[in-house]
């Protein structure tokens, strides 16, 4: 017992407990810090946008005059972009995941492809913009049109879809596959009729998250040379287009010239955030409602 | 069974089987083609960057690019190319971002993993992660129209565009990433270790600092390195809020241009294909690519190499 000095311990105890209490407060404050910033950000944007987010603003075409400017062009451009990104990433992404999870032999090739996908996920988006500019806009000569933007964005979000789909496929228990094989089904029949339907809710969740990433991305599209000024709306994938984030970018920068542009940018931000909020809530809903537990 | 089948039916059956067989053979090949899209993308990125960078260095010397200090690519009479001003801006914004993201992100992770009740964690964690879902263009707007004016009230010498404000906002953007990856690392530390420390009379804070954090250190450091990589590659916040002055300085109150913002400026500007300014784009991009790729690989290496196995 003489190794322990009870008195000393007793003396130091209140200080140690106090330190614990104080740092607990600091840690909690740090956690709340992000939320406070989020609240300030929303307040800032909403107060700037107040009075500018009208029905006319949503349905008018772009104009130099802030009072008449609208974002129907950017909204329709965003929808056009999604019409490329959606099918492309769904098909390529899910097919890649099926190959990696169900068909590929465990070995060097599979490891190589998977390492490549995870590295691709860490490449800055602006570099994808440069790839799109060089390959789709310049070499293939598409110009800054929906197709070029859509393909660039698809390549950017492809890793997200592949990884999500891989996880979804991995979560399908092997007894389902074995039962299907046991009934005499072939490999592809098993994948198509048993594995894919079971994994679909999680795949969709990943798809929606990838889409919301693509809707919010700005840098690659600016690198592609997507204009902010667009009077005619796009009517095919070979038409030029603009999207909400690009519109926000140019209006924020032009606010130096004409102060009202700032309010237009804020109003556009709210539209963008509402779209993202709806998409993300849908993803969470699908995950909670339809995901079966095996 | 075969006896009850007439010849006609047997032929039909055989045809169907061979068609199915062909499909079974073709499917893996088609799926492999899809999986190779991502490999082709990487090859495409490398090829475009390397080819055009070679063109750039046939016109501008390595020496000028890495050692001179002047960057004025669009100067019609005497264009100069040096990556140093872009590097100093990138480095500064990254340091500022990490000074915000590391302490706050790690504290958040410790709170969520060690202190928070289950209920509090279920509410707080998704709320913190909302920060990661906000588009960077919105953060850019926030930095430019709100944070900078507020900072200028405190620091009057701050330029209208500067590297401090986008650095801070970038740090806020990275908080959820550091927090969530560090929290994963902290929660992976087995409970016996905490309980052991507490059985010796350690307070929660002592157990966390002396036992839990050291045990999770590889995952925590990997999260910092990934945060750095994200800060280096982030584009829109700095493009909007840090200006386009190519300034080789370490004064955070000044307007500076990062590598990513330079790429945006040149691509959205008038530098026509084939000019030296156009090729410089790729030389800067490949530098950026190498930086972020090595950071990402370093993070993977750290979390793999130094993972403690319990």
UniProtKB/TrEMBL annotation, chain A:
- Identify the keywords attached in UniProt to this record, alphabetized: Cell membrane, Membrane, Transmembrane, Transmembrane helix, Transport
Family membership noted in the UniProt record: Belongs to the binding-protein-dependent transport system permease family. CysTW subfamily.
Q: Which GO terms describe its cellular component?
A: plasma membrane
**Protein name according to UniProt:** Phosphate transport system permease protein PstA
Where do the TM regions start and end? 21-43, 79-100, 120-140, 145-165, 221-241, 261-286
Q: Which GO terms describe its molecular function?
A: phosphate transmembrane transporter activity
Any one Pfam family here would be BPD_transp_1
Q: Kindly list the biological process annotations in GO that this record carries.
A: phosphate ion transmembrane transport
Which NCBIfam families has this protein been placed in?
3a0107s02c
Starting at the broadest rank, the lineage of the source organism is:
Bacteria, Bacillati, Bacillota, Bacilli, Bacillales
Q: ABC transmembrane type-1 domain location, by residue?
A: 75-280
- Topological category with respect to the lipid bilayer: Multi-pass membrane protein
User: What is the source species?
Assistant: Alkalicoccus halolimnae
According to its UniProt record, where is this protein located? Answer: Cell membrane
TrEMBL record, chain B:
The subcellular location is: Cell membrane; Membrane
Per UniProt, residues of the ABC transmembrane type-1 domain are 87-299
Gene Ontology CC terms, in alphabetical order: plasma membrane
One GO biological process this protein is involved in is: phosphate ion transport
Transmembrane feature ranges:
26-51, 83-106, 127-151, 163-186, 207-228, 277-298
What is the role of this chain? Part of the binding-protein-dependent transport system for phosphate; probably responsible for the translocation of the substrate across the membrane.
**By what name is this protein known?**
Phosphate transport system permease protein
């Amino acid at each position: 017992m003489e190794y322990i000095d009870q008195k000393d311990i007793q003396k130091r105890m209140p200080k140690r407990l106090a330190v614990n209490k104080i740092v607990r407060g600091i840690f909690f404050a740090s956690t709340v810090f992000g939320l406070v910033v989020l609240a300030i950000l929303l307040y800032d944007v909403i107060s700037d946008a107040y009075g500018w987010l009208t029905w006319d603003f949503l349905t008018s075409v772009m104009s130099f005059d802030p009072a008449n400017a609208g974002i129907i062009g950017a909204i329709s451009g965003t929808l056009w972009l999604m019409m490329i990104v959606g099918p492309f990433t769904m098909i390529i992404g899910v097919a890649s995941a099926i190959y990696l999870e169900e068909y590929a032999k465990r070995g060097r090739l599979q490891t190589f492809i998977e390492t490549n996908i995870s590295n691709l996920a860490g490449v800055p988006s602006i570099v994808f913009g440069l790839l799109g500019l060089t390959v789709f806009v310049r070499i293939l000569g598409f110009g800054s049109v929906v197709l070029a933007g859509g393909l660039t964005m698809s390549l950017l979000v492809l890793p997200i879809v592949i990884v999500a789909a891989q996880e979804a496929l991995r979560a399908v228990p092997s007894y389902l596959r074995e039962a299907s094989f046991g009934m005499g089904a072939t490999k592809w029949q098993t994948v198509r009729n048993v594995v894919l339907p079971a994994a679909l809710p999680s795949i969709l969740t990943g798809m929606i998250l990838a889409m919301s990433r693509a809707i919010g991305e700005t840098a690659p599209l600016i690198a592609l040379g997507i204009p902010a000024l667009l009077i005619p709306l796009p009517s095919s994938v070979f038409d030029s287009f603009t999207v909400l984030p690009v519109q926000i970018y140019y209006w924020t920068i032009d606010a130096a010239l004409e102060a009202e542009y700032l309010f237009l940018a804020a109003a556009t931000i709210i539209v963008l955030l509402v779209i993202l909020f709806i998409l993300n809530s849908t993803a969470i809903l699908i995950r909670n409602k339809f995901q079966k537990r095996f | 069974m075969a006896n009850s089948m007439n010849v006609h039916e047997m032929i039909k059956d055989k045809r169907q089987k061979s068609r199915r067989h062909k499909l079974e053979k073709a499917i893996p090949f088609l799926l492999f083609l899809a999986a190779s899209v991502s490999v082709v993308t990487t090859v495409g990125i490398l090829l475009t960057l390397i080819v055009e960078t070679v063109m750039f260095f046939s016109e501008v010397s390595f020496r000028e690019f890495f050692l001179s200090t002047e960057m004025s690519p669009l100067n019609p009479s005497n264009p100069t190319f040096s990556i140093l001003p872009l590097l100093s801006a990138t480095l500064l914004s990254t340091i500022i971002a990490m000074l915000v993201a590391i302490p706050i992100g790690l504290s958040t992770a410790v709170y969520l993993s060690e202190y928070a009740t289950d209920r509090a964690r279920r509410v707080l964690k998704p709320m913190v992660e909302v920060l990661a879902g906000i588009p960077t263009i919105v953060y850019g707007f926030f930095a430019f129209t709100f944070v900078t004016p507020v900072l200028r009230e405190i620091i009057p010498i701050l330029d209208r565009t500067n590297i401090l404000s986008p650095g801070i906002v970038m740090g806020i953007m990275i908080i959820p990433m550091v927090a969530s990856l560090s929290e994963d690392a902290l929660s992976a530390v087995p409970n016996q270790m905490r309980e052991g420390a507490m059985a010796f009379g350690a307070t929660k804070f002592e157990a966390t600092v002396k036992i839990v954090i050291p045990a999770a250190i590889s995952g925590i450091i990997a999260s910092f390195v990934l945060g750095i990589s994200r800060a280096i590659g982030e584009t829109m916040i700095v493009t909007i809020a840090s200006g386009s002055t190519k300034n080789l300085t370490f004064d955070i109150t000044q307007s500076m241009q990062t590598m990513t913002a330079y790429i945006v400026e040149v691509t959205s500007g008038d530098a026509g294909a084939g000019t030296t300014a156009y090729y410089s784009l790729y030389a800067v991009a490949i530098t950026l690519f190498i930086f972020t790729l090595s950071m990402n690989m370093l993070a993977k290496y750290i979390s793999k190499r130094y993972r403690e196995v319990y």
